[in-house]
Design goal:
Blueprint (H helix, E strand, L loop, with lengths): L1 E5 L6 H9 L16 E8 L6 H10 L21 E3 L2 E10 L14 H7 L5 E7 L18 H21 L2 H11 L1 H12 L6 H14 L11 H15 L2 E6 L10 H9 L4 E3 L2 H12 L3 E2 L8 E2 L7 H17 L4 H12 L2 E7 L17 E4 L4 H8 L1 H5 L1 E6 L5 E2 L9 E7 L2
Parallel strand pairs: 1-4, 1-5, 5-6, 6-7, 10-14
Antiparallel strand pairs: 2-4, 3-4, 8-9, 10-11, 12-13, 12-14
Helix pairs in contact: 1-10, 4-8, 5-6, 6-7, 7-8, 10-11
Magnesium ion (MG) binds next to helix 1.
Length: 424
């Protein structure tokens, strides 16, 4: 799972990235602070309790005792990555802080080409916009309310569309001619050859192409399509390739009237936009890292640590952060990321194990992996998500909750615990 943070310079991408990954990256108030794409890991809590809660129940029912650890508040799993406290399991998402983007980046302006290649492998994009409108379209500070977040949104969509249009138009007539002799599948294959680097699949292209043709009944044969028609197709493909969600950032400085238009527009089309304050999240993460407060990713508030030694100024700073998140109902960042992953990209969690009765791996680690897989994934898909060898050698699987044997095509559901049997 890979999510790209995109947007014009100076909207708070690097701050968002730093907050979510707790990695200290350069953050400054001028364009092009981010020289190369930063890639990091963001942690999000699963929406349901970790399967170790059920394992605890299972063990208790069988009359065995459990070694408990007060700090874990009941959790008994041993995550290979992330953590689990009080059955709240935190899992990784790859996050890319994409280099700043300016209008006409698809023509190579600014760091355009870097931008385009950075986002090629992303499952979804989160566009960070400056809801407060304090920076112009190229990211230069200009004072409050002088720039409209809607303009930012439109420019980014236009850039993405222009990029894909450019790729398709490159040799459209020649590529589309093949369809004359070989039919629509040949056109699908041509488009696929052009867009496979961006993560497009033939199935995805085929379905988008069919619906595009169906909704434009007056279209002539593909090899005669003009640039505008190809561009309209590119828009449809872009929506599928790079679903785009929006963080209305600097919301701490922006009242809703500044971005309500954009919000209405996006929500009318079924899109997702949420108020965020990356700066607040970063402040909280750093305070938590320093041991001053108790604050976990996704929490809507925090408490001051019992043994924290704070100066008056630090207490004041924390009180300000506390006011902000009370007003906003959290900083919005994890909530947005979680909606993208679980509601929009329809990820479910599955726990592969090697021992179906103890729910451990070969080293005795309890529920070591909580993998996010697309809804509709089969047992064999899960095997591939663990390791190519496990997928290639797949024989059958066992549903560790019921003990039933399941086949390669068995569709998994959220929270499944699965033992995979494979030839090695
Ligand atoms: N008030 C406020 N300022 C923010 C927020 N997020 C970022 N900033 C500030 O906006 C400026 C640009 O941030 P940066 O993350 O470098 O933007 P980027 O160019 O998009 O990566 C910095 O001065 C940040 O401190 C926020 O949520 N609220
Ligand atoms: Mg940056």
């Amino acid at each position: 799972m890979r999510i790209g943070l995109v947007g014009k310079p100076n909207v708070g991408k690097s701050t968002t990235f730093a907050a979510l990954t707790e990695t200290v990256v350069e953050i400054a108030n001028y364009p092009f602070t981010t020289i190369d794409a930063n890639i990091g890991i963001a942690w999000i809590p699963l929406r349901s309790n970790c399967a170790c809660a059920d394992l605890v129940k299972k063990i208790k029912e069988s009359g065995r005792s459990i070694e408990s650890d007060d700090e874990r508040k009941g959790s008994i799993c041993t995550p290979r990555t992330g953590s689990c406290i009080e059955y709240r399991r935190i899992v990784p998402i790859t996050l890319v802080d994409v280099a700043g983007l300016v209008p006409d980046a698809h023509r190579g302006r600014g760091r355009g080409n870097q931008f385009l290649s950075d986002l090629a492998n992303c499952d979804a994009l989160i566009q960070v916009v400056d809801a407060s409108g304090t920076t112009d379209i190229e990211g230069n500070p200009i004072g409050e309310g002088a720039c409209d977040p809607e303009e930012e949104y439109d420019f980014l969509i236009n850039e993405l569309n222009a990029w894909i249009t450019g790729i398709l138009n490159d040799s459209w007539a020649r590529g589309a001619r093949r369809a004359q002799a070989e039919g629509q599948m040949a056109l699908v294959r041509y488009i696929h050859s052009q867009l496979s680097g961006l993560g497009a699949t033939e199935a995805m292209i085929s379905s988008k192409l069919s619906s595009f043709i169906a909704s434009n009944p007056d279209l002539d044969v593909p090899w005669t399509w003009n640039e505008e028609t190809v561009s309209n197709l590119a828009c449809d493909l872009r929506e599928k390739l790079f679903p785009l969600y929006v963080a209305a950032n600097k919301a701490d400085q922006a009242d809703i009237s500044k971005w309500i238009h954009l919000k209405t527009r996006i929500e009318e089309k079924g899109g997702l936009i949420e108020a965020t304050s990356a700066e607040t999240e970063l402040g909280l993460r750093r305070a938590a890292k320093a041991g001053a407060i108790n604050y976990r990713p996704g929490d809507l508030d925090f408490t001051i640590s019992e043994n924290a030694e704070l100066t008056g100024a630090q207490r004041k700073g924390l009180a300000a952060l506390s006011n902000r998140i009370e007003e906003m109902g959290g900083t919005g960042l994890i909530s947005l990321l979680s909606s993208v992953v679980f509601d929009r990209l329809d990820r479910i969690v599955a726990y592969p194990v090697q021992d179906e009765s103890k729910w451990v791996d070969g080293d005795g680690r309890v529920l070591p992996d909580a993998l996010l897989i697309p809804q509709g994934s089969t047992a064999k898909d899960l095997a591939y998500a663990v390791h190519t060898d496990l997928g290639d050698g797949f024989i059958r699987a066992t549903d560790a909750r019921t003990g039933r044997v399941i086949g390669a095509d068995h569709e998994l559901v959220n929270d499944d615990v699965v033992k995979i049997h494979a030839k090695t």
